[in-house]
Design brief:
The complex is a heterodimer of chains A (533) and B (314).
Chain A (H helix, E strand, L loop, with lengths): L43 H6 L18 H18 L9 H10 L11 H5 L10 H14 L4 H6 L8 H11 L7 H5 L6 H16 L7 H11 L7 H19 L14 E4 L2 H5 L2 H14 L3 E2 L13 H4 L1 H18 L3 E4 L3 H9 L13 E3 H11 L13 E3 L13 H10 L3 E2 L25 H9 L1 H10 L10 E4 L3 H14 L1 H5 L1 E4 L1 H7 L15
Parallel strand pairs in A: 1-2, 1-3, 3-4, 5-6, 5-7, 7-8
Helix pairs in contact in A: 2-9, 3-9, 7-9, 10-15, 11-13, 13-23, 17-18, 19-21
Chain B lengths: L1 H28 L38 H14 L1 H6 L1 H32 L11 H34 L1 H6 L2 H24 L4 H12 L7 H16 L7 H13 L10 H10 L16 H6 L14
Helix pairs in contact in B: 1-9, 2-10, 4-5, 4-8, 5-7, 7-9
Classes of the chains: A mainly alpha (533), B mainly alpha (314).
């Protein structure tokens, strides 16, 4: 039974604001309706080291200040950050959309049911998209604008702040995948997802607080050693050698993956996750580009071989640092354009968001690899046999590519041509549901956050995927979810592992380029090997 | 009394226009931001399914046709229809739409009164059986606007608090100001409704009032009409203190944020603006940001602890 939660519950010391019970969660189709377990409880020791009083889940793991003076310093530091959020020098990047959303939201709640996490949780009040902005709005009214108490009463904008309330707010900012479905339905143009991001920004840019997988082991590590995975340039060379051998073994083709080829037409940026977890994606790109005669290269320069830019989720400065290094790698190679592989957030970061950070010679044309793939497929340059993909296929729309960039049809036109049993999810296209691993969630592996991600934020996507294959539920019929995004694939892997989807329903996941290569008529054996990983 | 009414009306109109202008100017003066578009972008060729120019290979070499008229129509029509609400919460929409139509049409009614009064000063008779066609048109429009405003507004003001109290989500985010607004606006609309139904079925008094405003001649009006006009003037003065500017700022948000897909090309005005913004100094306090660095300097630096310059020792 869901306990009703109000804003006032955030500032009450001690107990947990919301309790998550499997009985409340949105129902999944059979046999998955009997599989939910309560989220893993944190140990006593963990509870001492980090505050989990929002919902019993920890994404960041903030140690609460123990002394009153520490608590005051914590709160003061946050408030100084809120002021910077409204400073045109410190936050020109998002000031206008932030100001608009805070000032003009009428809290009509139309966005609530658009949020998959809110609906999947059984409509927990704390996950309403309006909750985070309302808390921030009240903090601004009470502590930044210092509005008169009577006015605050009239506007119900008072809040008694303490460190625990702020820690809960920080955690709450990491319960939104930034999919921006809420913003899409807002008639007033308000964007509550952006406010989640801006709250994350205060904690990161002002207080140095962020989930370690996103900051310390994420963007910091990428800048330091070249990739958020820890992969160094020598390791990259080894992996590419292995990839070439794999290609030869699978296809009999001797393909040399071009690295640091100066003056190439295209610098291809892959998410480094592909090198380590899904090398078949990297192989498929190499096979396709080789067959189509594309003049392309990878970079081995630090940061230049890992397309990820975690800054886009939480920190503008880290974002700018990574974007600049990507552009610099391209400039050093003298390529004509940068093409982004199958990674949604890297698309959004490098093609759209970085567009207003990169100027002059660093403003090198950037595009998605999807239209290029479509051009190759439609050109007839390579012979494709759709019969090789004659199994049920559905398409996941990565939010960053689709709702946030408008790349909707190229991937569909490809699938209609090469996958005879292609079917859409409902809803799809710009109204799609997030995989549940967006905005860094797919990489956060500590404490019990992965439990929450599989049970709550990814729940809607799991249901949608199962529904798309409802006509062929047997595990004997092999089915394929095409997810042209590394982050989304990571989330699918987690979801399917948690619920045993491969074993129970025979649903496999993978990228788009693998399907194209699987349809290549000149390959002796199928490229997709249906080996669960 | 008549003179006071004229003065109050002028103050009310000047006030609302000035404060709205200040608010809109403040919105527009905010710096250019990072692109944060959201699809469908209505001016795009493939807006029906939410496609963008990024669907084309080497998009920067291709034309990017923009249909601004379609965007404007799309944005404006929702002021009168509110389709997302109808789709997602029809019961709420049932009250919300008339509540908003009340606002829009009461203001349109008074603006039309001004033009009708101007025509009257010029010799046009405003009536259903006016010898001039213009007089008949004005009469019809005025009646339609007033009926929608008074009936819609009254219905909305009664229904909104009911739905707000009945729906837990809405109730938990409601503030005393909302309920004050419903009550106050109810009096404004209901007083207009009463004066129209009981005393002035052809709305002739409003036209006399507006002729008085134009000619600076205090009109002789029924007290009930005067009461409504005073309330309406207060309503105009009060509106800028509510979130009502969203009628305008929502359009700005659509065009300047949600649908702002303008790419930054080398040598463009936008690039110049961005270079100025990137030259500004940062003052964030986190360890990975060096205070006082510009955005460009911060981006070039790695922000790693070992690369931070050591503090000079005296």
């Amino acid at each position: 039974m869901i306990r009703k939660t109000g804003i006032q519950d955030f500032t009450k010391p001690g107990g947990q604001v919301a309790e998550l019970e499997p009985a409340d969660w949105m129902k999944l189709p059979a046999p998955y309706d009997q599989m939910d377990k309560p989220l893993k409880k944190l140990t006593e020791d963990q509870r001492k080291r980090m505050d989990a009083t929002l919902d019993g889940v920890v994404a960041i793991g903030i140690l609460p200040p123990s002394m009153p003076e520490e608590e005051k310093a914590f709160v003061d530091r946050f408030l100084a950050g809120v002021e910077k959020l409204f400073d045109a020098k410190d936050n020109w990047t998002f000031l206008q959309p932030l100001y608009h959303s805070l000032e003009y939201c009428v809290k009509c709640q139309i966005c609530s049911d658009a949020c998959p996490a809110y609906v999947a949780s059984g409509r927990q009040d704390i996950y309403r998209p309006t909750m985070r902005p309302e808390l921030l709005r009240r903090i601004i009214s009470t502590y930044v604008k210092k509005e008169h108490p009577l006015l605050r009463k009239f506007k119900a904008s008072n809040i008694e702040l303490n460190a625990q309330a702020l820690i809960r707010l920080a955690e709450l900012a990491y319960r939104c995948t930034l999919c921006r479905r809420c913003a899409q339905v807002c008639l007033l143009g308000c964007d509550n997802a952006l406010i989640s991001r801006e709250i994350r920004k205060i904690f990161s840019q002002q207080m140095g607080i962020a989930p370690k997988e996103v900051h310390e082991k994420g963007s910091v590590q990428q800048i330091k050693v070249g990739s958020s995975t820890g992969m160094t340039p020598p390791a990259l060379a080894d992996i590419l050698e292995f990839t070439e051998e794999e290609i030869a073994e699978k296809t009999g083709k001797k393909i040399k993956i071009p690295v640091d080829k100066k003056g190439s037409d295209i610098l291809l940026l892959h998410n480094a996750g592909e090198f380590l977890a899904w090398p078949e994606n990297l192989e498929a790109f190499a096979i396709l580009f080789d067959a189509a005669g594309i003049d392309w290269t990878l970079s081995s320069e630090l940061v230049g071989y890992d397309a990820v830019n975690y800054g886009v989720w939480y920190d503008d400065v880290q974002f700018a640092r990574v974007a600049l290094r990507h552009a610099q790698a391209a400039k050093n190679l003298g390529v004509k354009r940068i093409s982004l592989g199958e990674c949604g957030h890297a698309h959004k970061a490098m093609i759209v968001v970085a567009d207003r950070v990169l100027t002059g010679e660093l403003n090198i044309p950037r595009e998605s690899a999807l239209p290029l793939m479509e051009k190759i497929v439609m050109s007839g340059r390579i012979k494709l046999d759709p019969g090789r993909n004659n199994f049920p296929v559905t398409l996941h729309d990565p939010c960053n590519m689709v709702r946030l960039m408008g790349i909707v049809e190229p991937q569909r036109r490809i699938l209609r041509k090469i996958a005879p049993q292609f079917r859409e999810m409902t809803p799809h296209g710009v109204e799609n549901y997030c995989c549940g691993g967006g905005s860094g969630f797919a990489i956060i592996q500590s404490n019990n956050f992965p439990d929450w991600r599989s049970s709550v934020s990814g729940r809607m996507k799991l249901k949608q995927t199962l529904d798309a294959f409802a006509d062929a539920p047997s595990a004997d019929v092999k089915k394929y979810v095409c997810a042209p995004c590394s982050n989304c694939k990571g989330q699918y892997r987690e979801l399917f592992n948690t619920y045993g989807v491969w074993e129970k329903s025979g649903i496999f996941y993978g990228g788009l380029v693998e399907l194209i290569v699987n349809a290549m008529a000149d390959l002796k054996q199928p490229f997709i090997q249906w080996e669960w990983h | 009394m008549g003179t006071l009414l004229i003065v109050l009306t002028y103050i009310a109109y000047v006030f609302i226009v000035a404060v709205y202008a200040i608010k809109v100017r403040k919105w527009l003066k905010l710096p250019v931001h990072i692109r944060w578009d959201l699809y469908p972008v209505i001016h795009e060729e493939q807006y029906r399914y939410g496609g963008s120019y990024y669907e084309k290979p080497e998009w920067w070499t291709q034309p990017r046709p923009k249909n601004t008229g379609r965007s404007l129509w799309h944005a404006l029509k929702d002021n009168f229809y509110m389709g997302e609400y109808f789709k997602r919460n029809p019961l709420y929409w049932l009250f919300l739409l008339p509540w908003h139509l009340g606002f829009i049409f009461i203001i349109l009614f008074h603006i039309t009164c001004f033009f009708a009064a101007t025509a009257m000063v010029g010799g046009v008779t405003i009536a259903s059986d006016s010898p001039q066609l213009l007089g008949q048109i004005f009469y019809g429009i005025l009646m339609a606007f007033a009926v929608i405003a008074f009936i819609g507004g009254t219905f909305g003001c009664i229904g909104m608090p009911v739905i707000k109290l009945a729906d837990r989500g809405l109730r938990s985010y409601a503030m005393p100001m909302n309920y004050f607004n419903y009550f106050f606006f109810l009096i404004v609309y209901a007083s207009g409704l009463y004066s129209w139904l009981a005393l002035d079925p052809t709305l002739a008094e409003y036209r006399m009032y507006w002729v008085g405003l134009i000619t600076l001649t205090p009109p002789d009006l029924n007290p009930a009409t005067v009461f409504h006009i005073i309330l309406f003037d207060i309503f105009l003065i009060y509106l800028p203190f509510t979130r009502s500017t969203h009628y305008i700022t929502r359009l700005l948000a659509y065009f300047k944020i949600r649908w702002d897909d303008e790419p930054n090309f080398r040598g463009s005005m936008l690039e110049k603006q961005l270079n100025d913004l990137l030259a500004q100094k940062l003052s964030w306090d986190a360890p990975h940001i060096l205070k006082g660095q510009s955005w460009v300097e911060a981006a070039i630096s790695s922000g790693l602890p070992e690369t931070k310059p050591e503090t000079k020792k005296d």
